[in-house]
């Protein structure tokens, strides 16, 4: 599940509510994965936030990911073939 909240309190309330609802429907709340959106602004000055374009993800991937890879904190290749593999999630068991 992917979600966006402006405060930590809102995000935590949402997370615990979704876990509660999953359990009430017979789902394992521990199997629920919630990914919070993050916004990054790259720039040399405080005003850069106001100058950013809708292409911020491209800029992040082009400028920040290579730095993280050089430092060994972000993968340089994927070992699996599915998103579940990449996230380290167990295969889904279907009846």
From TrEMBL:
UniProt keyword Cell division present: no
Keyword Protein biosynthesis: no
Keywords: Flavoprotein, FMN, Monooxygenase, Oxidoreductase
One Gene Ontology molecular-function label: monooxygenase activity
InterPro entries: Diverse_substr_monoxygenases, Luciferase-like_sf
Gene3D superfamilies, sorted: Luciferase-like domain
This protein's name: Monooxygenase
Species of provenance: Mycobacterium noviomagense
Lineage: Bacteria, Bacillati, Actinomycetota, Actinomycetes, Mycobacteriales
